[in-house]
Amino acid sequence: MSEPMVTALGHAGLRIDGPGVRVLADPWLSPGGAFLGSWFQFPDNAHLLTRELLDVDVVVVSHEHLDHLDLDLIAGLPEAVPVVVPRYPSTIMQRRLRAIGRTRIVVLDAWERHALNDRDWLTVIPEQCPMSHDSAVLFKIGDRSVMHTNDARISLSQTRRAVTEVGGPLDVMGVQMSGASWHPVRYEYDEVERERIATIKRIGKFKAVTRLVRQVQPRLVMPYAGPPCFLDDDLFELNSGLHPGGIFPDQGEAVAWLADRIPEQDAVCLLPGDRILLDDLSVVRDPQWNGFALDAGPAERRRYLKEYAARRRPAVDAAWAANPEPRPGLAKRFKEHVESLGTLSEYFLARIGMTLRFEVMGPNGGLWDAHIGPDRVWVDLDGGNGHADYRLTLDGRWLDGVVSGRTRWEELLLSLRFTARRQPDRYNDYLVGLLKHADRAALRAVELFETARDPQETIEINSGGKQLSVSRYCPHAGEDLAETGVVVNGVLRCLGHNFEFDLASGQCLNARCDPIVVRSADVAYEDYEDAAV
């Protein structure tokens, strides 16, 4: 291989080749899907799963989600192939890799270089806030560079450093422009409200990426990492392209958005097997897709997905078979599991303080209330009385997988195999963080990050003709509001995660979150201490 190139593998997967370099990055090709048989690759990338594709020197995986950490694929690679992962507070990735027999695991600190040969290297760029364990991967291959952002919401300052690290503009920048959230698609909204929220999230994601791309100005940008594909009958109508809107846009829609907002920026839509030659950025199309079009329309998309679902029926059936109806004692196991979470972090419990009601359907189910925080966790197995801030309704087979250790909480949530309701309808990141990490070290890292921030550092913004000083950093995840903040009708929205703050009071409007500082830019701080914010 003389000319460096990038091959799209579908979803966020890439293969990167050059002289003496053969790397798989976040490959997801196994036909069994992910997240309890609910997610599959779109379009189908099974034709790439060949011995030639898997003949590589190294694999790098950005984070633990199973649409990036393909355990079946990695388990089948030769033992000599190392797996490179970022260092996170939790060691779940290393433990999962060891469980499938991988012994050559390289753990990188942020910006630490891993040599691919005597001149080429890769490094990892984790999100600044440890609430999310996501990382970009930066490659330097000869004179060329590739920024593989995966699911990471990296900051402008991080991308500027990346440009400095590679010694010039980025040649190719892969950007994630499709959501992967269970909100609002699994919440009990009416159709109009669900689409309203989905549109806000979809456009918010697009705007955040557009801002980043506009500032970085890579030679070529390629959207990827979506949409997930749902082939189980229970989830089929969630697929992108069957109905207008939604939160799962495809690569073609993302490219069209960028072309409209940044017409001078070169962007490309790649399907699995398509290649970018890094020297001149020309694209070589995989003949697999002759006659296939992302924008063919809902009827053609439905036909393609129905045929795809028929091919993957054994994988969907296997997921159900691997999670049979729970045996007696599920309630007791659930109580023990959830109450054990209360021992992990006083800091998180104090910021949750709510009742989470579980309506567990099927044999050995019931109505169970988990009272989480502010100072302890206890479960009432005779639940259903009184107010519940959150309610989850799900089949007991999926919950049994979590409490027995087959499945992690976030895998269950990403599977979309539940419905939910919130009263009041406000997001609580600490509840989600407690469940998805369930790890003392990971929760402690969030506490240290948040308590180390200076809430008084401010920036100036204009709102309705008034100059205001507001907190520079979003109190949720530390996003720099100088980069990610937009003001609309007296509300400051952080594009990092779409948290909204009232510029009259500083209070967060749509989530459980500390307020931002808001004061007139013309008033000195010492004169403002006793004023209402």
Low-confidence stretches: 524-533
pLDDT averaged residue by residue = 92
With helices defined by DSSP (H or I, 4 residues minimum), what is the helix count?
Answer: 15
Using the alpha-carbon principal axes, give the shape.
globular
Task: Pick out its properties.
six-stranded mixed sheet; alpha/beta; single chain; 533 residues
What do these coordinates show?
The chain has 533 residues and is α/β, with parallel strands linked by helices. Helix content is 27%, strand content 23%. It contains 15 helices and 27 strands. The protein has an 8-stranded mixed β-sheet, covered by helices on one side. Strands 7-8-9-10-11-12 form a 6-stranded mixed β-sheet. A hairpin with a 2-residue loop joins strand 2 (13-18) and strand 3. Helix 8 (330-341) packs across helix 10 (396-404). The radius of gyration is 23 Å and the shape is globular. The termini are far apart. The model is unreliable at 524-533 (pLDDT under 50).
